[in-house]
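User: tokens in, sequence out, please.
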């Protein structure tokens, strides 16, 4: 029985990794062994980055809501608790957009939260 050489599969695997490493500097884009390490790290980082993006946006929204609520005389936590008591279901993304684009509407929400807290 004839021996089967694995050159074709290896070539395919190398091409795939080197294609992902395109644009990397120096040996990282030319040599398979080094490119493989760089690609593995890059894919790992991009995966964690997709998770961190969600956290960072939530932090941004909370900071914006807090700033707008304090302008209207209420802290973030009390504002959110007042909205919960008032049974207002608006997510943080929309609240932050309201704080920027519609300050009057946001002020009415703050007044509603204040009335429920008192």
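Assistant: Sequence out:
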């Amino acid at each position: 029985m004839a021996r089967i050489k694995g050159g074709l599969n290896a070539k395919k695997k190398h091409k795939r990794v080197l294609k992902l490493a395109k644009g990397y500097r120096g040996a990282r884009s030319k040599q398979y062994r080094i490119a493989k390490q760089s690609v593995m790290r890059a894919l790992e980082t991009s995966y964690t980055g997709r998770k961190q993006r969600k956290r960072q946006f939530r932090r941004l929204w909370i900071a914006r809501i807090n700033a707008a609520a304090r302008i209207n005389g209420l802290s973030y936590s009390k504002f959110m608790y007042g909205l919960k008591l008032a049974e207002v279901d608006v997510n943080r993304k929309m609240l932050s957009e309201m704080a920027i684009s519609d300050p009057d509407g946001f002020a009415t929400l703050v007044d509603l939260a204040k009335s429920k807290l008192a």
